[in-house]
Write a structure and sequence with these properties.
eleven-stranded mixed sheet; globular; fatty acid metabolism
Length: 588
């Protein structure tokens, strides 16, 4: 396969911050070694009281520490009490033994209106060997709480370092994914469960799912809650992990290890004095892993109202042998009715988890260029598409390589990629430029490399898939074609750009043809920043690959003017069509 030519062809806790002004916070940050003012560091020595029967740190205790560190970071930024609203997927890469030190770093990535995303990194240190190892990375959403009946509006957070700018930019994309998470799961389960068959494995023991059912009650006491009397989210997660572990143990008659927790949301608070009822059951057991569903409900002492649903979560467990390899598990026989429904849904969720982990969690360079697109991974491919471009935009080491009149060309050299961006200011509003550039069917009007672009599927309001035909390159005997996912994003808040991101996908309806050389693009697209009501900065980004470095460098050093000429044609296209666009919008 050929890749697209890069231009237009395609514990101890840090002391709380007590000063109020931005200058004082910067001084405090300097005193802490240049840390982000919201950063909290926690170090905990794992003692026997924190461990399970293996002498390893219990996942429940780790979840409590993670939630505590994240909450302190959120409160440092908000200046008021905060509560846990949700937690994204967590994948535990290693276990931690008694005597090792757990290090947790948490800092606010971005503040929205009344909620904020906190990024958490967990690692451990072996004090004897000096070995350090990453355990997991997590993202939690916290909501600031003011006096009863009032809503706290959070101050914006200004990122300073390259890493902070990347996390700040992608946080908006993660927030978008969280907001549609429930509907996405419901839609995917509806499409998937009807085709799920009961698994059969020769010689496997079959355990009725009802034998794994667990129910436990916990009384919320003052040590379990914050100073407003709301139960700590981490405490609830620890209790949930406890009953889930018991359910998993009843299936395998061994001590299971928690490997992952699926994204979940707290639906409502619980307070001191509440009784929390926790229920767990093994929904499905695959060859080497099992899914346990856990539900938490609350009621008060008087039982004056019906039980309140606090949250539900799905946890994945494995059983490791002496060499640390996952053992084969018994099969589950679900009860008719709800048991069979949970069994089928667990199979569908496993596919969803794999899609989400594969596309969202891994590094950009680990994702194949053309990932198969289908309904089950559309949200995650869209996320990956936009976040990859935003990551490229936020890089700090861009160097001005060439300037011709109003067009500037910048390059970024890292690892095996040479990326470039081309930008210029255009007398057009950012919204108009965004609308015109996001429709690939009009690309041929200004980009001579494009022959045509057919809209294959309008996925939703923000995403579309196109089949693009380009001209024959000098080094090829036949034209190229591409199947491209185009993802549009309007600004999430002031200062954000309009984004149009492109990446290759594969569709069964459009396989590679002998009439064309199938091209691919890894990461490219436009960002448009408003400079005034009638002026915008338009920038095109592309992550080139070794096969086309000669084409890129020829333009960068000035031996060719294709880049500049194409971008100047783009400017003329925008200026020519902005009035027609205004007229069409007025007619609507």
């Amino acid at each position: 396969m050929k890749r697209i030519p890069p231009l237009f062809p395609q514990g101890s806790t840090s002391p709380p911050c007590t000063r109020d002004t931005g200058e004082q916070q910067e001084e405090a940050a300097g005193a802490m070694g240049g840390h982000n003012p919201t950063e909290v560091q926690m170090s905990q020595l794992v003692l026997p009281c924190h461990s399970n029967q293996h002498g390893e740190l219990s996942a429940g205790q780790l979840l409590k520490w993670i939630d505590t560190a994240a909450c302190l970071s959120a409160e440092r930024h908000a200046g008021c009490p905060c509560v846990t609203a949700s937690m994204d997927d967590i994948y535990f890469e290693h276990t931690i033994s008694v005597g090792q030190v757990v290090s947790i770093k948490a800092k606010v990535n971005r503040a929205f209106n009344s909620s904020m995303e906190v990024g958490i990194q967990v690692s451990y240190e072996d004090l004897c060997s000096g070995k350090h190892c990453s355990i997991c990375k997590a993202y939690a959403t916290f909501v600031a709480q003011g006096p009863p009946g009032t809503k706290v509006k959070l101050k914006p957070l200004t990122p300073q370092t390259e890493e902070e700018k990347i996390e700040h930019s992608i946080a908006a994309e993660r927030r978008r994914m969280r907001l549609v998470h429930k509907d996405t799961i419901k839609d995917l389960l509806t499409r998937s469960t009807s085709n799920t068959e009961m698994e059969t494995r020769d010689g496997s023991v079959v355990v009725p799912a009802e034998k794994t059912r667990v129910e436990s009650v916990e009384l919320v006491l003052p040590p379990h809650a914050n100073h407003q009397g709301n139960t700590f989210g981490g405490q609830i997660m620890a209790w949930m992990e406890n009953v889930a572990t018991i359910a998993a143990s009843r299936l395998c008659h061994a001590h299971p290890t928690l490997r992952a927790i699926e994204m979940f949301h707290f639906r409502g608070p619980s307070q001191v004095g509440d009784r929390l009822v926790l229920k767990a059951i093994v929904n499905n057991a695959f060859k080497n892993s099992m899914e346990v569903g856990v539900c938490t409900e609350a009621y008060d002492q008087e039982m004056s109202v019906s039980r309140r649903h606090i949250n539900s979560a799905f946890m994945t467990f494995v059983v490791l042998d002496e060499e640390g390899r996952p053992r084969t598990l018994p099969m589950v026989m679900p009860q008719p009715g709800d048991g069979e429904r949970r069994y089928r849904e667990a199979s569908a969720r496993k596919k969803i988890r794999l899609d989400r982990k594969y596309v969202v969690s891994c590094k950009q360079t680990e994702v194949p260029l053309s990932v198969p697109w289908d309904q089950s991974n559309k949200v995650y491919l869209s996320y990956n598409n936009v976040s990859a471009l935003k990551t490229l935009v936020a890089k700090a080491n861009w160097v001005l390589a060439r300037e011709k009149e109003k067009v500037q060309i910048y390059t970024l050299e890292e690892d095996k990629f040479l990326s470039f961006r081309i930008e210029m200011s255009v007398h057009i509003s950012a919204g108009q430029a965004f609308s015109l550039l996001s429709d690939l069917r009009r690309r041929h009007e200004w980009d001579r490399h494009y022959e045509s672009a057919e809209l294959v599927q309008q996925v939703d309001e923000d995403d579309a898939i196109y089949h693009v035909l380009s001209q024959t390159l000098s080094c090829e005997n036949k034209p190229q074609d591409f199947v491209i996912l185009a993802s549009r994003r309007k600004p999430c808040s002031r200062g954000d750009p309009y984004v149009v991101a492109f990446r290759s996908v594969t569709l069964p309806t459009h396989p590679a043809s002998t009439n064309y050389t199938r091209g691919e693009t890894l990461c490219s697209g436009f960002c448009v920043w408003p400079e005034s009501e009638e002026m915008s900065k338009v920038a095109y980004y592309n992550q080139a690959t070794p096969g086309y470095l000669n084409y890129v460098t020829t333009n960068v050093v000035g031996l060719s003017s294709n880049f500049c000429a194409t971008f100047e044609a783009c400017e003329k296209f925008l200026l020519k069509n902005k009035d027609d666009l205004i007229a069409r919008l007025q007619d609507l």
